[in-house]
């Protein structure tokens, strides 16, 4: 008779340990980050804030200025998040980290969720009209069916 030893990790059994929130500076993404922070606080989970830095197509001749701009967005988000964290320190005790991934938003968030072993993903609803037809990043994440996804309006 052999004894079974469970050496694997099963998601969702003890509540989330890592809650990932996608942020891009839009109002809906900042609301998603605030919502995710509340979840992380209540669940005693790590809040992983993720900005996916866009990669321009090879044909784009803009080069460095575009990379500089997206880098500035990431730096601005970090500054904004740090300031918000300082304002609520002592009221909300949330462990958080900021990560930057490169790629298109969907692929970047999937990579981030996999690499960070996210138990849940929180994103803002798309503010672009065309996404109602084609499908937003949020809809694609839900359809992937790999983690619970919360879409914040």
From TrEMBL:
Domain UspA: 17-153
Pfam families attached to this UniProt entry: Usp
Name by which UniProt lists this protein: Universal stress protein UspA
CDD domains reported in the protein's UniProt record: USP-like
SUPFAM superfamilies, per database record: Adenine nucleotide alpha hydrolases-like
Organism name: Streptomyces roseus
InterPro entries according to UniProt: Rossmann-like_a/b/a_fold, Universal_stress_UspA, UspA
Upper lineage: Bacteria, Bacillati, Actinomycetota, Actinomycetes, Kitasatosporales
Gene3D superfamilies registered for this protein in UniProt: HUPs (3.40.50.620)
Family membership: Belongs to the universal stress protein A family.
């Amino acid at each position: 008779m052999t004894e079974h030893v469970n050496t694997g990790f099963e998601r969702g059994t003890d509540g989330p340990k890592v809650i990932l929130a996608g942020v891009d500076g839009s109002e809906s993404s900042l609301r998603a980050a605030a919502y995710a922070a509340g979840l992380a606080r209540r669940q005693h989970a790590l809040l992983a804030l993720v900005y996916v830095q866009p990669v321009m197509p090879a044909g784009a001749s803009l080069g460095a200025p575009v990379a500089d701009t997206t880098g500035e967005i990431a730096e601005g988000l970090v500054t904004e998040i740090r300031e918000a964290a300082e304002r609520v320190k002592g009221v909300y005790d949330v462990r958080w980290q900021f990560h930057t991934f490169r790629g298109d938003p969907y692929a970047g968030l999937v990579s981030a969720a996999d690499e960070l072993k996210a138990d849940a993903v929180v994103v803002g609803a798309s503010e672009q009209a065309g996404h109602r037809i084609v499908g937003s990043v949020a809809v694609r994440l839900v359809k992937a069916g790999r983690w619970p996804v919360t879409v914040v309006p």
